[in-house]
Amino acid sequence: METNRVLQPGFNAQVYALVRQVPPGQVTTYGDVAGLLGARRVARHVGFALAALTDPEVPWHRVINAQGRVSFKGDPVRAGEQRRRLEAEGVVFDATERVNLSKFRWDFKNLELLPLP
DNA sequence: GGTTTGACCATAA
DNA sequence: CTTATGGCCAAAC
Q1: What distance in Å separates the CA atoms of residue A67 and residue A76, rounded to the nearest whole number?
Q2: Which end of chain A is more exposed for a tag (fewer CB within 10 A), N or C?
């Protein structure tokens, strides 16, 4: 038996592809992206993939955690930038710095028409 | 090759 | 509300 690897090669490319499809003014969560890739457990690795991201085409700032909050741990500078960019796109932050996911969460089912690599 | 770490999540108290 | 705990998987040390 080969090792049961949940993450397949190209996982991070899939993450980028999905995140790239999130339109301005909408957000998604790590867990949702992970779930769409077949395994909700790998939510951490979605963040991991984005941490290694250098492609400016990928709107990494539209990915937040399941609590509707910006999730950066060691880099509050980028967290502030993330919030600034989201607000510039029309995403509204609560007084507690939370986003109403019920309202701004992007439904990936809308993009059946878009091809994945 | 075991231990630590990580842009997470859900649940419990 | 916050904090703690367990789970999960892979990469880095």
Answers
A1: 17
A2: N
Does A109 contact strand B, using a CB cutoff of 7 Å? Answer: no
Residues A57-109: tens digit of each pLDDT: 999 999 999 999 998 877 788 889 999 999 999 999 998 899 999 999 998 87
Quote the CA–CA distance of A11 and A14 in Å, as a whole number: 5
A50 CB less than 7 Å from any atom of strand B: yes
pLDDT, tens digit (0-9, with 9 covering 90-100), for A88-97: 999 999 988 9
A35: CB within 7 A of chain B nucleic strand: no
